[in-house]
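dude i think i finally got it to work??
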Amino acid sequence: MEVELLHRPGNTAAKVILAEGESCTTEAGAMIAMSGNMQIETTTYKRGQAGVLKAIKRAFSGESIFMNHFHPQNGTGELWLGTALAGDMMVHQLDHETLIVQGSSFMAGEKDIEIDTGWQGFKSILSGESVFWVKLSGTGKVVLNSFGAIYPIDVDGEYIVDTGHIVAFEETLDFTITKAGKSWLQSILGGEGLVCKFHGKGRLWCQSHNPQSFGNSLTPNLIARKA
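look at this
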């Protein structure tokens, strides 16, 4: 599977080239366009397999219950993928490792990638995030998306990130929930509230925009227009 990212970083689209015999699993609704020889199969788990329990768990993480599997016939096929919110994408190569991804940031993966949902504990409820996160493991390419620009941070020790700006992180990292300021009053008045403090050594990916904050900023205008 070859992936080319175009129109970065504000309106990124992924051009995926699949050779005959290759397949790609994507989040439902991610396709923009595809070549005429591309075949599509929709399941609740892997191509040709059902997984109702895994599908229900994905729904809790913010992902779709269904997944689409694309594979070309009679030669090479082309597939274009896009996101619901304007932003960037990244291609990450997994090599017998695991990546934890926040709900809605998973876009696509090669057929050998195991897509599951991991429990992040009740600390995620406090952070405003889902208690379930997408867990990608195995060997192969995965495509992730972000709201706004996406950038990596190498953590060695501790690093603090606003909860709405997390895209993904390596399994070698863990996090706890803490207040942003020295006191709860400072955290509330400063508009930051709760943040995630990461511990360990590994890579973390962040997005420049916060979907929840964006939605909150639109709500008053939508109510005013409706009135």
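The radius of gyration is 18 Å.
im so relieved honestly
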